[in-house]
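It is worth pausing here to work through a concrete case rather than discussing structure prediction in the abstract. The textbook approach is simple: state the sequence, then state the predicted structure, then interpret. We follow exactly that order.
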Amino acid sequence: MKKLTVIPTMIAIVALVFLSACSTAVQVKAASDGVSAVGNTSSQSSASASQASAAPDQAQPVAQAQAVQVQQATAVPAAPVVVSNSVLSAYESTLESIYATVDPSVVSIHVLTTTTVSASPFGGRGRGGGTSSQVSEALGSGFVWDAQGDIVTNNHVVEGATSIDVTFSDGKNYSAKVVGTDVYSDLAVIKVSAPASEIHPVTIADSTQVKVGELTVAIGNPYGLQNTMTVGVVSGLGRTLPAGSQGATTTGTTYSIPDIIQTDAAINPGNSGGVLLNDQGQVIGVTAAIESASNSNAGIGFVIPTAIVNKVVPDLIKSGSHQHPYLGLSGTTLTADINNAMKLAPDQQGALVETINSGDPADKAGLKASSTAVTINGSSTNVGGDVIIGIDGSPVKTMDDLIAYLESSTAVGQKVTLTILRGGQQLSVDVTLGSRPSQPAAFSDPFTDPNASLTRFTLSSQALVME
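Step two, the predicted structure:
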């Protein structure tokens, strides 16, 4: 019985040694051919151990063969990893296509203005007081509107200009003249006499369809760097931008441009009057201002939407001006404190009428201004006037809602129906809209420094910069 037990055991050991040797030879051969073989680690370890105990003189050659295998396998270069970049390529191609299409439509505008300043009586011996002329220059942007050579830009770019030059993307330069301006929308139209080969009108999109998060592309001339493209997204909608002259200070009633588009695409001094585009290369607005403490991009740019551009520009081309619907009142958005002071529901929304101009449409319609003085957060204010909560059936939750509706959906001479709260009672009042004064008396232009940046006004500690 013992003999019969030993013989099968020896046969098994010899078989294992033989198989292990064969396996090692195959591995070495595979490695030398540049093929990496992966086996069962536990089986290989077991086989190696058996081989070493059964045939010690073969252990060293096997180890050397395995070392050669590792060395040769390491020397084989790895196959390159191919990563799909179709999305990135499509994105880059889109931007390249947008720039190639719109670049010929965007122009650089060089403006000279002449300012009369008082001369110092201490300017030198023998010199007395008086006035002198001071020439300033500024750079802005614009874009071709139609085949007749009309170019759209911002009013503050060409305001007070004595000379205007336009440079196209190919470097050709032409003099331009002002066709029309509108301080209330900060839009202007200038005109060049250039050959048809230079005239490439843009395509206009419907800005009312724009949504937060959509891709935006700005093309303009920041700091005089002609036809620069920057990319971002729509970062906000429904903003308001005070209307008026560059560097203006307020002294009375003010006006606002509604439905402003906010973007984080880099906009800097010189971009004013340029285009903001969608991912189709269509214009969704005119770049107008940034909010910044340093007069440079801070990621908050303001753009006049094409919904306004489409209403104003044709009138500027036709008659040189545009009439804006006018109620003749000023107001503010209701707050919890105002609601409390007026004994309204805490969550009441609407626009409180603060003042009414005598003889204007709101006055003629019988609207009531605020006249009860109260102290709110340490400041004296008047409350008690009519609260506008709707216009022509559209809800008015803020003063901005009222301004936006008047600008987008009404015209001078049109009759509108206001839904108001008066003394807690809801009433309807019909008002026939008038036209705003031709020039806002609230603004003056104190600029005399020819090197001053086009700073419009200050919001708390930050400056709103007109590029």
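Step three, interpretation. The longest helix spans residues 2-32. The two ends are 105 Å apart (CA to CA).
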